[in-house]
Amino acid sequence: MRNKIDILQTKVQQAHAGGGEARIEAQHKKGKLTARERLYFLLDENSFEEIGMLVTHRSTDFGMEREKYSGDGVVTGYGTITGRLVYVFSQDFTVFGGSLSETHAEKICKIMEMALKNGAPLIGLNDSGGARIQEGVVSLGGYADIFYRNVQASGVIPQLSAIMGPCAGGAVYSPAITDFILMVESTSYMFVTGPNVVKTVTHEVVTSEELGGASTHATKSGVTHFACANELEAINHLKMLLSYMPQNCEEIPIQLPYTAGNESRPSLSSIMPENANQPYDVRSIVEELVDSDSFLEVHKDYAENIVVGFSRLAGRSIGIVANQPAYLAGVLDNHASVKAARFVRFCDCFNIPLLVLEDVPGFLPGTDQEWNGIITNGAKLLYAFSEATIPRITVITRKAYGGAYDVMNSKHIGADMNYAWPTAEIAVMGAKGAAEIIFKKEISSAEHPEKKWLEKEKMYSDIFANPYRAAERGFVDEVIQPSQTRIKLIKAFKMLENKVVNSPRKKHGNIPL
Ligand code: HXC
């Protein structure tokens, strides 16, 4: 008996040794943690239960039968984060560079299936040289097995991906299908084809970092939702992100205990600049409205003209979509539309109510926008809001012009409550442009055209640069004092907590991709 137990212990020790001391040291020298160290920091103490520790690869080509490591380059299992069940896989770069073999893929698939069956989030810590080169097509098949399961799980359980090393080739598509991607500055990168192939094909000379580093994907492509300074920051972000989400699509997010206090926010009454064209940072409104320090911004450095993120209101998890007047005057453009649409759909998948703060002068005009598909991309946001069945509330703080009025969670596309501040301006377009079009003849034939234009601009502005026309129609449910906004929102979200929508039966809609 003793002997048999010793054999088991030796096997466990071998598995824990990964690719050996030298490779672990090399990993640390790069500023990277090992697969097991990452899990240690991610999961509650002593909560990790490993599955498949003794799995080894089956490859016999290139003398591979002589080089086997228990676990085959990925640590898989389940554990808890603040007491909540999660399934995890953590790729071990010290074993064949974390590359994906047939058995490595099978281990990940097994965990994915368990997560799906048991309705708990899946977290992937990626650090891999891609397909196991010695295995050929079985490795490619393994990737596709993972992609397929990512799609089956999409919208059923939250799926989070942290990129903590290389992630190249088709390997990028598993994280891309998951709900959120976090990357680590300087030590992680993602690209479909690396710098060498880029140089051969397009003659561009570019580094890995420039091509697919965390900053690149956080600012230029929007592929990553978070760029974290180091691995520990990424792990903390994963935990924070998870705290706003339920375990699966059948549940609602955990509500934190909340003791009601004075919910009036007098500073909001003076937050809007006197001049309607003056920018301000919408985050200052968000911070006043939500529970203190509860705002977690997503996609912070991408499409900054729209702000999206999670927060809490009286302990309740909510998603926020807000036009950002401090950047491009808060216009909707291609990137902002897609960014917000994806966020809205995530919230809708997982029963996270939505708050929309609207101050938008319209869609950005120009050839760049049109040629890059603002029609299709704007439609994505329109579609995402329209199909969302979660509680949805809009507060128009200032501008709500043109098509953007409709798109930004208007009453007409199914918002539950629409509030406006007295500073709201709701019209087809700004007064200056409107006057120029509808009083064109009068202005050009006037003795002093400029004066006439100003006069007509004022006339249009007096009629429409306010929330009352919309309120008269019921398009706005109530014009509210800015200081009372938090109180109104707390009450309205509570009122909407049992909302049920019976959508028409269909296989699935056809969002304009
Ligand atoms: C097998 C691999 C491997 C791979 C790395 N290793 N990548 N083994 N298959 N794909 C092994 C190395 O042989 C080495 O083994 C160890 O991992 C560490 O690799 P190094 O090169 O020493 O590390 P580093 O200098 O940090 O470079 C990391 C790297 C590089 C940039 C990832 O290894 C690399 O370019 N690897 C190949 C990447 C690649 O082309 N993959 C296929 C992509 S296509 P030892 O024994 O020395 O420790 C793809 C298609 C997926 O993935 C399609 C899905 C649809």
What can be said about this structure in brief?
The protein is of the alpha/beta class and 513 residues long. The chain is 39% helix and 17% strand. It has 2 domains: 2-243, Alpha-Beta Complex (2-enoyl-CoA Hydratase, Chain A, domain 1), CATH 3.90.226.10; 275-430 and 465-495, 2-enoyl-CoA Hydratase, Chain A, domain 1, CATH 3.90.226.10.
Characterise the protein shown here.
- It is a single chain.
- The chain is elongated, with a radius of gyration of 26 Å.
- 47% of the residues are buried.
- The strands form three sheets. Strands 10, 11, 12, 13, 14, 15, 16 and 17 form an eight-stranded mixed β-sheet that branches. It has a seven-stranded mixed β-sheet with strand order 1-2-3-4-5-7-9, with helices on both faces.
- Helix 4 runs parallel beside helix 5 (137-153) and helix 16 (431-438) packs across helix 18.
- The model has no long low-confidence stretch (mean pLDDT 96).
- The chain has 513 residues and is an alpha/beta fold.
- It has helices spanning 2-16, 21-29, 35-42, 102-118, 137-153, 173-177, 195-202, 208-212, 214-221, 231-243, 283-289, 334-349, 367-371, 374-387, 402-407, 431-438, 440-445, 449-464, 468-473, 485-495; strands at 49-50, 74-81, 84-91, 122-126, 159-163, 166-168, 180-184, 189-191, 226-228, 296-298, 306-313, 316-323, 354-360, 392-401, 417-420, 425-427, 478-479.
- The protein folds into two domains: 2-243, 2-enoyl-CoA Hydratase, Chain A, domain 1, CATH 3.90.226.10; 275-430 and 465-495, 2-enoyl-CoA Hydratase, Chain A, domain 1 (Alpha-Beta Complex), CATH 3.90.226.10.
- The structure holds hexanoyl-coenzyme A.
- Hexanoyl-coenzyme A (HXC) binds at residues 23, 96-97, 99, 129-133, 140, 143, 166, 168-171.
- Hexanoyl-coenzyme A (HXC) is lined by residues 23, 96-97, 99, 129-133, 140, 143, 166, 168-171.
